[in-house]
Amino acid sequence: MAEESSTLDPGGSGREPEREQRPRGWSRLRGLQDQLERFEKSAAGRYWSHLSAADFMNSSFAFSALAVLSAFPLLAVSSSVIGGDIRTAIVARMGLNDQARRDVDALIATGNQAVATLTWFSAIVLVLGGVGMASTLSAWYHRIYEQTPPKGFLRHFAYQSAGVVAFVLYISVEIWLFDKARPVGGRGLIFLLTFVFAVLFWWWSTYMLLYRRVPLRRLFPAGVATGSCITGLGIVSSLFFSDQVTSGQRSYGPAGVVLALITFLVGFGVCLHAGAVFGRMWNERQDERGSLDTQSGRD
Q: Can you say whether the dihedral through the CA atoms of 258, 261, 262, 263 is positive or negative?
């Protein structure tokens, strides 16, 4: 018996024959494939699939660039006209500490000088930049909700211009309200107000950016999810972004502060995608339940 054993395994290594090892390797690979298939069929897998189909990361980077080039100048000028300061909204929304606030103040002017030297041409450029940003957001929501935009340049321009006005009012009201609320309730009240205003604004904005072709009640879950994501981003920002702003200022000067702001804006774009996709999936789930209830009622 010992001789037969040594013949089967001359080296005495005790290793199993290769034909027995190979099925084990294939079974492990098959197990990983099964787990991947189960994940793709799960709610989390379908959620990720919808986000990937919307190309959310590339779109969020494009959003951050548009915000720096278009939204910031427009909001700086408009907030200065009504006596506000866009830097207040940035600091409050990101939850920055005093040092980071000073770095942001050194980077962005109040807008008073821009208003004093504003010409008709520059004003038109600012408005068109805002309209372009609204057009980009509209394309996002149409892609996520699989809607075809209606035809008509004037209709598009009217809705997008109204969106720019609404966004300016939204930020302006937040600037005024944050100034009043911060001494009373601190960051907790700021986050609560951020959530409430974000839900209302993005609920209604999604409705308008989709040209009122999706019922308002079906967009409420997207509004709540978007408001939750934006508020969560503000909380995370208050914990980590102050250090990123100050370290960026020390390492790279104003460019480091810009990088920190762009990172926040990328996160903001991801929040918009995540909220919209959640709203769509919520509606699909409710439709499935409704169809099942209808079928069971017939049976």
A: positive
Tell me how many degrees the CA angle 76-122-178 measures, rounded to the nearest 5. Answer: 10
Phi then psi for residue 37, to 5 deg, are -65, -40
Q: What pLDDT, in 10s, does the model give residues 57-86?
A: 999 998 898 888 888 888 777 777 766 677
pLDDT in tens, 209-219: 999 999 999 99
A 10 A CB-CB count for 91 gives: 22
Cβ neighbours, 10 Å, residue 43: 9
Residue 121: both structure tokens together: 């041409």
Q: Is 193 exposed, middle or buried, given 0-12, 13-18 or 19+ CB atoms closer than 10 A?
A: buried
Torsional sign, CA 194, 177, 100, 256 = positive
Position 256, amino acid: G
Rounded Cα distance between 80 and 265, Å, is 22
